[in-house]
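Notebook p. 47: complex prediction with zinc ion.
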Amino acid sequence: MPELEIWTASWVWLDGAVHADAGLVTDGRRVLATGRLDALQTRYPTAPTRTKGRYLGPPLANAHTHLDLGLGPTFTGPFPDFVRYVIGRAGRRGREAAVQAARHASQHLLGDIAAREEVVDWWLAEAPAAGVVYWEVLGLVPPDREAEILSATRERFERWKRLERAGGPRVGLSPHAPYSLTPSLMRRLVVLAREFEVPLQIHAAESPGERDYFLRREGALARFFREQGWPLDLHPTGLSPIAYLSELGVLEAGPTLIHGVQVDEADVRLLAESGSVVVSCPRSNLNLEAGLPPYDLYLHHGVPLALGTDSRASASSLDVRDEVVLLERHGQPPERTLAWAAAGGRAALGLAPPVLQPGMELEQVEFW
Ligand SMILES: [Zn+2]
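Predicted complex, structure tokens below:
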């Protein structure tokens, strides 16, 4: 009979949450039991207890990346300057950059936004990870261009849906952000996503300038629009970015929202009603001077949270554990943030809730 061991860690996934003083029993191949550590030690008195590190549980998910932005360097500074920085690096984006970045991604479960067709093709053909690759669309364009973008997007999804394999990554759609598409293009893309039954991921309420732009057509993003010569009358005013997405019918589709930093309680209520998951990328938010989301407000209203690193252009690693470490320094306990990364991440990617239960193969369990 193989020797049994009790495994524990500082934080252990048990019954849908992360706990201290919990563990599992294993024969080296499978999980035989899970439970409170003292109960396991009473039930298996001869099994030695091994401490496996800080975390023991289902694998964590990095619910928001842009692998095709490559490996940096990491930008720090105000959001409009970051947009200029990303635009300036457009020529370097692509499959090679994504392949390189995927090698540095610490989690195997990713929500990745791709801005190049070859990157989606690569994801679906070679599956660098499990999860979802979202096709990114931007468009502050006149109606005739909108029709072109929509029909090109439709053709891509007709092709990509045929390339999806059972158990492999899924293709999704990311209308980039409320401010970077016209209202009609945003609405029509969401209709298209529902038609193809693909998941949605949208950046929203990230920088203070985004909120100022929507509410009053003021601030850093409005200035950036003026500098670029983009029209300032494309979007309604007087609504927050989240209220705008709600009015447009976008929240009804249950998109995953990335960032959700600049929100008030009314916004959080709208998100709670829609069932949207909010993916927080705190290192990116601090690097781009956006601040941190009101986590306690989200928890109070029962909005599911997930964690993402964002790209290496705004975070120094593609390891979601670094978000947990940062948030601990900002007062968020790891039992909370690890649950966001384990359970919230799966919810953000449309996957079944994580489990740690008897009968599982040990290789399905993550510890570090
Ligand atoms: Zn992003």
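Notes: The domain at 5-57+354-367 is CATH 2.30.40.10 (Urease, subunit C; domain 1). The pocket of zinc ion is lined by residues 64, 66, 113, 203, 258, 310 (CB under 6 Å).
Next step: compare against the earlier run before touching the bench.
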